[in-house]
């Protein structure tokens, strides 16, 4: 079962279970980063809980060299407006607002680690806040540095 499904379930997760899940998530992300691996897509749907609350991560980004920062086009309209109100685990520095596709940035491993750490923080808050998430894409845009 995914963490998303568990958070949306009818029974509450006990404080002990939350702490056990959180400790495993923190340890997994730390071990990944020490091994030179970034997930980039940490969210409750990508956290699998097996029997005994063992945490497993799924849906890793497969090739960091091909992965670009998340972009929201100001030209595109309808689809992007829909996305603006969805919950987000994307670090603010990964949101790049642009009017054209001309801007290309290469992202470093350290920046991807920051993305994982931000996503992990959002996950932990949601876990301990009874499934309520912190950010939507729209609210995250307030933290983007446009300079």
From TrEMBL:
Q: Which UniProt keywords apply?
A: WD repeat
Gene Ontology BP terms? late endosome to vacuole transport; macroautophagy; protein targeting to vacuole
What Gene Ontology molecular-function terms does this entry list? ATP binding; protein serine/threonine kinase activity
Ranges for domain Protein kinase:
1-147
Among InterPro entries, the record links this protein to:
Kinase-like_dom_sf, Prot_kinase_dom, Vps15-like
According to the UniProt record, one GO cellular component term is: late endosome
Q: Which domain of life is it from?
A: Eukaryota
Supply the name of the protein: Protein kinase domain-containing protein
Q: Which organism is it from?
A: Streblomastix strix
């Amino acid at each position: 079962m995914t963490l998303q499904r568990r958070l949306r379930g009818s029974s509450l997760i006990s404080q002990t279970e939350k702490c056990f899940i959180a400790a495993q998530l923190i340890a997994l992300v730390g071990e990944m980063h020490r091994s030179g691996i970034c997930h980039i897509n940490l969210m409750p749907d990508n956290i699998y809980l097996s029997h005994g609350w063992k945490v497993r991560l799924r849906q890793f980004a497969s090739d960091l060299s091909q992965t670009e920062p998340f972009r929201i086009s100001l030209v595109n309209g309808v689809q992007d407006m829909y996305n603006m109100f969805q919950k987000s685990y994307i670090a603010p520095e990964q949101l790049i607002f642009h009017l054209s596709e001309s801007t290309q940035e290469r992202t470093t491993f350290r920046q991807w680690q920051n993305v994982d750490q931000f996503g992990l923080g959002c996950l932990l808050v949601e876990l301990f806040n009874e499934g309520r998430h912190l950010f939507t894409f729209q609210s995250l845009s307030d933290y983007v540095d446009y300079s």
